Amino acid sequence: MSSSANGGPTPPSVGIVLISHSAALARAAAEMAAALAGPEVTIRPAGGTDDGSMGTSIDLIGTAVREADSGGGVLVLMDMGSSVLTAKTLLEDLDDDDAPAVRLADAPFLEGAVAAAVLASTGADLQTVAESAEQAWSMRKL
Amino acid sequence: MIFDTQRAIAWINRIAELVRADVERLTTLDTAIGDGDHGANLDRGMTAAVDALAEKEPETPGKVLITAGRGLVSKTGGASGPLYGSGFRAAGKAMRDEGDVVALSDALEAMLRAIEELGGAHHEDKTMVDAFAPAVAAFQQAAGATADMHTAAVAAAEAAEAGLAATVPLQARKGRASYLGPRSVGHEDPGAASTVLIFRALADVTAE
């Protein structure tokens, strides 16, 4: 159990799962978000099918969600297409009592992942982390 | 005729056979406007569904469809996995054990609703819904008129085929094909094509 600087218990931070059709893309996005957010945030990639080809796997995503949860819930970001459908399907399956609190972010994949990870590193709750990811749509580049 | 456990298993097995026989055609359709994996993906998903049923035979037709749906969701890999998988699970939950034509009709309607709800596709978006919705409507109409399961399933398969043909002039509004804009016109939708196989399989297994 970790503790904060003043010695009190730290509230569990929000975990993040990144779903992509590509295992390499999910891993790299997780690596980049972790680099910008610091080591306190648990970020799990869930890319590709369970045999490593292009696509999505509900089993890989389910495992990543359970691993990412430390009690504060999990924010899931999807790249596009079937990632979204698979994530929505998983959400319907997670209705038992001991399932982690999970939210799907309607957010751009990489920008949303970084925004969510940075907010999660501050100890923000699931709702706040989700809003941060979804606000990433409005961050213009030029 | 009763849509019992054995007939439900036969339906899933027949879909798998028809998908396997048409892998190349589905892939060719999907290569034209999609990412070229619909045939292989659905073949993998249906194989998982068949294997799950062979491993432990479910006790009711509803449980057959739920088990098949779970296999599809778990192994397909593309968008058709969650769509058809959630659809079969919804059909299974709606399926009543007496297995008469009305029970099957209600199950098919539940399947359509689940697919529409998950995918968010509407009429003429150039998706499987364009074959599925008319198929379910035709099944319901024929079931009401004749109460014969095979007649209803044949009508559904014919309506699905007409729905598939009607996707050709449409511009895609969902999935990868939607990025192509007007260039998605002039091709059959691969999801609508696989929906035809689902209803053709139902017609086949209700023939006797």
Structure, described:
Chain A is globular. In chain A, 46% of the residues are buried. Chain A has one domain: Rossmann fold, CATH 3.40.50.510. Chain A is an alpha/beta fold and 142 residues long. Chain A has helices at 23-37, 58-68, 82-93, 109-120, 126-135, and strands at residues 15-20, 43-47, 74-78, 102-105. Chain A starts with 14 loop residues before the first strand and ends in a 7-residue tail after the last helix. Chain A contains five helices and four strands. The longest helix of chain A is centred in the N-terminal third of the chain and has 15 residues, at 23-37. Chain B has a single domain, classed as Alpha Horseshoe (Serine Threonine Protein Phosphatase 5, Tetratricopeptide repeat). Chain B is 71% helix and 0% strand. With 208 residues, chain B is an all-alpha fold. In chain B, 60% of the residues are buried. The interface between A and B is medium-sized, with 16 and 19 residues.
Name given to the CATH homologous superfamily of chain B: DhaL domain
Order of helices and strands of chain B: HHHHHHHHH
* Radius of gyration computed on alpha carbons of chain A: 14 Å
Structural class of chain B: mainly alpha
The CATH architecture assignment of chain B turns out to be Alpha Horseshoe
Short account of what is shown:
The complex is a heterodimer of chains A (142) and B (208). Chain A is globular and about 35 Å long. Chain A has helices spanning 23-37, 58-68, 82-93, 109-120, 126-135, and strands spanning 15-20, 43-47, 74-78, 102-105.
Write the layout of secondary structure elements.
The complex is a heterodimer of chains A (142) and B (208).
Chain A: E1 15-20, H1 23-37, E2 43-47, H2 58-68, E3 74-78, H3 82-93, E4 102-105, H4 109-120, H5 126-135
Parallel strand pairs in A: 1-2, 1-3, 3-4
Helix pairs in contact in A: 1-4, 4-5
Chain B: H1 5-21, H2 23-33, H3 38-55, H4 61-75, H5 80-94, H6 101-119, H7 129-146, H8 149-166, H9 190-205
Helix pairs in contact in B: 1-3, 1-4, 1-9, 2-3, 2-9, 3-4, 4-5, 5-6, 6-7, 7-8, 7-9, 8-9
